[in-house]
Every structure is written in C-alpha cells, then in structure tokens.
Specification:
CATH class of the largest domain: Mainly Alpha
InterPro entries: Glutathione-S-Trfase_C-like, Glutathione-S-Trfase_C_sf, Glutathione_S-Trfase, Glutathione_S-Trfase_N, GST_C, Thioredoxin-like_sf
Largest sheet: 2 strands, antiparallel
Structural class: mainly alpha
Protein name: Glutathione S-transferase
Pfam family, one: GST_N
Organism: Pseudoalteromonas luteoviolacea S4054
Distance between the termini: 19 Å
Number of helices: 7
Oligomer: single chain
Radius of gyration: 17 Å
Strand order of the largest sheet: 1-2
Shape: globular
CATH topology of the largest domain: Glutathione S-transferase Yfyf (Class Pi), Chain A, domain 2
Family: Belongs to the GST superfamily.
Length: 179
C-alpha cells in the first residue's frame, strides 16, 4: 500500500500534539490514517485497516489457525491491559510521589502481573502468536519499549530477548527511519 508520512511536531513545552493534527482528526491524536475517504486514529484500528487493504495477510494468522486467537488476544492486550499501567507509570515519573498512594500500588501490581505473563509467554515462543511475527508484535513492541526505557524489564530476560529480535528485523529498522 503506497503511503506518505506527514510529521506533526509535538509542542516543545507541553509535549502535546499540535493543533495541525486536530485538523486531520478531531481527537488530535496520532497515529492517524487517511485513505479512500476514511480517517481513523487509534493504533489498533489503523493497523487493522492497513491489513484489510492487502490480500496478503502474512501479519495476521488465518482465522482457522491455532495462532489466530493468541494473535487476537495480544493485538488488543497491547493497548488494553498493558498500555494503561505502562503509560500511567510513565506519567507518574514526571511528578514527585510518596509511593504510598493507592494508584502506586495498583500500577505496580498490574505491571508485575502483565510483565510476568508476557515474559512467561515469550519463554515458550518467539513471538506473540507463536513462532511467526505478526501484527500483534507490532502492537506490543511500543509499550514494551517504553517499559524498557523505564527500567521495568531489567529482570525480564525473555522480553528483552524478544525486543532484540524485533529490533533486529529489517522492517523494524526501516519503520524507525521514518521517525
């Protein structure tokens, strides 16, 4: 699928998206895709839309395969179960906290639960839907990279090995070159 990447620079002070993005989609959030009259935001929706445009579904297991439902779970786990505690933890690092508020305990518990589940899964298989890279891996990678930057993966060897595998892929490196 041919594409153009349009960069919208975040505000240097607030780190929020610029108003130019709001002219593309009313939520003023990225990523956004505009194609054939459709304008979608939300990473998962954008990725599903792109997959639906192709007759080659190498990034999505066949619905009649055993890998499909694992793929489906991880595709949604990325921004559902994992996204909230990772982003909340990131935001909590931006302020002085005593560490004893209910939110601190909840986020710590959820991060441990999620990251343990992920690490145990990756101890048994190379990728989230089995031994073949899929769109679920694309969705999971960014939250895991953020978790790594926050030092949340220091004792998670299988997640670290997974990220090294993903980051070594030529397609990952090509995508990173876009910014």
């Amino acid at each position: 699928m041919p594409f153009d990447v349009i960069h919208h620079q975040r505000d240097e002070n607030t780190k929020l998206a610029p108003s130019s993005l709001g002219r593309v989609h009313p939520l003023n959030k990225a990523p956004v895709i505009e194609h054939n009259g459709h304008i979608l935001c939300e990473s998962g929706a954008v990725l599903e839309y792109i997959l639906d445009q192709s007759t080659q579904n190498s990034l999505r297991p066949s619905k009649d395969s055993e890998a499909y439902y694992a793929y489906l779970e991880w595709l949604h786990f990325a921004e559902g179960s994992l996204g909230l505690p990772v982003i909340t933890y990131l935001l909590m690092q931006m302020e002085t906290r005593s560490g004893d508020a209910p939110l601190d305990g909840y986020i710590a518990k959820e991060l441990n639960l999620d990251l343990t589940y992920i690490d145990q899964t990756l101890a048994k298989q190379l990728y989230f839907s089995g031994d073949v890279f899929s769109a679920a891996d694309i969705m999971m990678t960014i939250s895991l990279e953020i978790a790594g930057s926050l030092k949340l993966l220091d004792n998670r060897p299988h997640i670290q090995a997974y990220l090294a595998r993903v980051q070594a892929r030529p397609a990952y490196q090509k995508a990173r070159a876009f910014g």
